[in-house]
Design goal:
The protein has 212 residues and is α/β, with parallel strands linked by helices. The protein is globular and about 55 Å long. It contains eleven helices and six strands.
Length: 212
């Protein structure tokens, strides 16, 4: 396995310790460096290459212009996992469109965090199921009666989270002890609520509506 180098960027000691605890047994990292200074981040990422930056939406918005952050990470192929408070809804939209590859809610589990790291290592974007439902509810305007059917049930949120992680309907049915036909029905309901043909299109629809 090709190891990556991690940079934890934050100035809250308790949060740093929590992240380091979660990273302690993560097999993807060869080393972890902690800093709160943007100039040091640039120096470290230039020296190490193959870097994953782990930070928070609060640090980004309070410490650096988000456009500069986006340009630097894009030009230097730095992958970013960003923890975000889901109550700061405007940040979810702004950070997603800034190109950050992985968004994790502050109250997500270690399992969700580990999954996000795995997706980054494999070159894929990831939005945690907790944030995905919030993001979609914020960004998708339904064409027919927008006030109706725009809230997912708890079970639909759970199923959407599993679909977003690549689980098939059959795998979901086994995991949740439901019949495949029941999962098929939930999936159809989710897509209908957002007017999408498939889960991947949900994000595309939200971005399209934002720009229209």
């Amino acid at each position: 396995m090709n190891k990556v180098k991690g940079i934890v960027v934050e100035n809250c000691y308790c949060l740093i310790q929590g992240i380091l605890d979660w990273l302690d047994k993560n097999e993807h990292f060869s080393s972890i460096t902690v800093t709160s200074d943007w100039d040091e981040v640039k120096k470290l990422s230039n020296e190490t290459g193959n870097t994953i930056l782990i930070t928070t939406g609060k640090w980004i918005t309070h410490s650096i212009d988000i456009q500069l952050f986006k340009e630097y990470c894009s030009e230097n192929q730095v992958r970013v996992l960003c923890f975000i408070d889901k109550s700061t809804t405007h940040n979810i939209v702004e950070l997603y469109h800034s190109g950050i590859q992985c968004l994790i809610a502050m109250d997500d589990s270690q399992e969700e965090f580990s999954w996000g790291i795995k997706e980054l290592v494999n070159g894929r974007r990831h939005v945690s199921s907790e944030l995905l439902s919030t993001f979609l509810e914020l960004r998708v305007t339904l064409k027919n009666n927008p006030s109706h059917h725009n809230t997912l049930t708890k079970r639909e949120e759970e199923i959407l989270g599993l679909i977003s992680k690549g689980y098939t309907n059959k795998e979901i049915s086994v995991k949740l002890f439901l019949s495949k036909r029941t999962v098929d029905g939930y999936r159809e309901s989710i897509l209908n609520k957002f007017g999408a043909r498939n889960t991947a299109q949900l994000i595309a629809i939200s971005a399209e509506n934002h720009n229209s």
